[in-house]
Amino acid sequence: MRPSKRAPDEMRPVSFERGVARYAEGSCLVKFGNTHVLCAATLEDKPPPWLRGQGRGWVTAEYAMLPRATHTRTRRESSSGKPSGRTQEIQRLIGRSLRAVTNLPALGERQIVVDCDVIQADGGTRTASITGAWLALHDCFQWMRSRSIIKDNPLRDHVAAVSCGVCNGEAVIDLDYAEDSTAETDANFVITGAGGLVEVQATAEVAVFSEDNLGSMLTLARGGIDKLVQLQKAALA
Length: 237
Description:
Layout: E1 14-18, E2 26-32, E3 35-44, E4 58-65, H1 85-99, E5 111-120, H2 125-146, E6 159-167, E7 170-173, H3 177-180, E8 185-192, E9 197-204, H4 211-236
Parallel strand pairs: 4-5
Antiparallel strand pairs: 1-2, 2-3, 3-5, 6-7, 6-8, 8-9
Helix pairs in contact: 1-2
Subunit structure: Homohexameric ring arranged as a trimer of dimers.
Binding site for phosphate: 86, 124-126
Pfam family, one: RNase_PH_C
């Protein structure tokens, strides 16, 4: 039995609240159970310096965890002068996931920055960030279209992410902290609405995992992504 009493293929309750940041071009408060992340998209009317003159735009992300998002206070990374390796890895993952479904030339020479700030953490902060960031990015593009900044929607598909793992020898989906901290295998899957794999991260934490384990986790992840994409669509309806 999982600590949360959920079935192996049962995700935590997921919700999206759009337009929560008054000044952002697009925003979304995403909740995966007790993991809550505020995603806010900002339009910058110029590309990064290395992309200037190439006639296409860029989508990137920044990620941070608020000091009391966890059981004990975490020191702000700004006070140490640079983001941690974990933070850099996660924000690069979010950026790659969003770019995978974005037509960058359709942006023109502009950049969208999506800030993902974890308000409360209970496992799966990166997967919640990716899933909510897609909605914030969508609304930013809608904001741009409504002002004739761009003509067409640059988004080519949905993208969402979910964690899976092997706990007590069984594949399970959407790990909370109680499971994530003791899982034998920890994995994250980023998948598009059409079913394309964007990124798969899988790590043996306690014991090695088999191809059958990986296949079981992927099957669970595909089912979870289908649900998340349907929830994204419902949030836009």
